[in-house]
Amino acid sequence: MRRQKPAVRxxxxxxxxxxxxxxxxxxxLVSGASPFASCTIGGPGTNYVNAEVEPWLAxxxxxxxxxxxxxxxxRWSNGGAHGLVAGYSFNAGxxxxxxxxxxxxxxGGLAYERASDPWVSIGPDGTAYTVSISFNKSNNSNAVGxxxxxxxxxxxxxxxxxxxxxxxxxxxxxxxxxxxxxxIKPGIAYAVWHRLQSPNGNPYANLHTVAFxxxxxxxxxxxxxxxxxxxxxxxxxxxxxQTIGNQIVVNSQDGTLYDFFNLITPPFxxxxxxxxxxxxxxxxxxxxKPQIIADMRTVGVTNPNTGKALRTGDIIPEPAIxxxxxxLYVVWQDSRFNGGQFDEIALSTSTNGGNTWSTPIPxxxxxxxxxxxxxxxxxxxxxxxxxxxxxRDLQAGNTKTLPTNMWRTMSNNGGxxxxxxxxxxxxxAGPFDMKTAPNAEGLFVGDYxxxxxxxxxxxxxFIQTNSGSLTNRTDVFAAP
Length: 480
Description:
This protein has a domain at 296-479: 6 Propeller (Neuraminidase), CATH 2.120.10. The chain contains no helices and 32 strands. It has strands spanning 8-11, 24-29, 47-59, 67-76, 81-89, 97-100, 114-122, 128-135, 142-149, 157-165, 172-181, 189-197, 216-221, 232-235, 242-250, 257-264, 273-280, 291-295, 301-302, 309-311, 318-321, 328-334, 344-350, 361-362, 371-378, 384-390, 403-411, 422-433, 443-444, 450-454, 457-465, 474-478. The strands form 8 sheets. A 5-stranded antiparallel beta sheet has the order 1-2-32-31-30, with no helix packed on it. Strands 3-4-5-6 form a 4-stranded antiparallel beta sheet, with no helix packed on it. Strand 5 and strand 6 (97-100) form a beta hairpin. The chain starts with 7 loop residues before the first strand and ends with a strand. The relative contact order is 0.13. Keywords: Signal.
């Protein structure tokens, strides 16, 4: 039985530029009561039952009004969740139902104690692909799983294991996977992830700077997820280097694949993280060497009044591509615009297939406070939207709450300049108290938040806390 809550109506901020959009958004509640509430698998650690985090969204190009979102359900304090859940809507996000994904023991699927890093993508024939990192806390067994839905997200089958590194092998940990359906070729999809490799033990997914190495792996399906190719390395790195946040976008005009990621290199200081990419012009058979776009000069995110850390997507770049022109975009957290004091949202774009990139610009409103967890998408008329959280409503001296809002900003000129051409915020959600979020090595609503498009309409898919609730700390919302 779904937990019923009234939808929250959020009043938007009038846009500085007219973009044919409403100044008020209705945020629809997506998530319900945890289907894993009675599961006792996965300890030790603190489990936050009814806490949803890290959502992702895909719009179905074959079924008008069908949206599928995925998220972590019942987050653990020390990594992963009881399992992953999918929400689906057939009325453009107004109402939602949900079902479990078969990636953990709590879900009766893969026999792993926890699951994490949910992702979903939908092909031109309506086939939806989802993937997971599934792993144990009691030992070092871990895998990348995949499943498919052909009914708009109601049911999921073709459960596959793309890679598994189980006991007694303790050297490898697969992490931070994503899946991308080819937008013009039905039945084809691509999965990418990095695998942390230690000389003598599992370095765990969060200890990025001490991993021995972390190359990027790639697998592909050409039959709608019935089978997947054997994983292969597409970004090989030397000792003490790794990738993270791998994500593929596809040029609908010529079929070129671009895999974006953070390339982590020594020395491990503010310039260690680099926005980079590789590309393939033969559908993944061969790939270029990494090209660096810019440093990710992140300093992380903390509560300005207490110094308490948040865990955000500070080392995860987010890419997008214009489906009509192939123009590329990437956003990330960066402190370069304020002298290294706090993270804001940087954007760079390329109009020539990644050969050259624009100088990074800030795309958040400059409030003197951190902005974080950006997502970026391009709609059918070439407008670019970026969503993010920030702390602008936090008053000096307030240590009891951490009011947080989500915003959307847009550009109609392809992000080529800053100012009146990339601005005009719309208030998406908030304020809500971030201090209610689960503590998973810092207050945590996810390393990423979802954003997709229906024609010209942008659909943020995101987490809000239920301020002050210790039994239902967070929920997933959509704001179409």
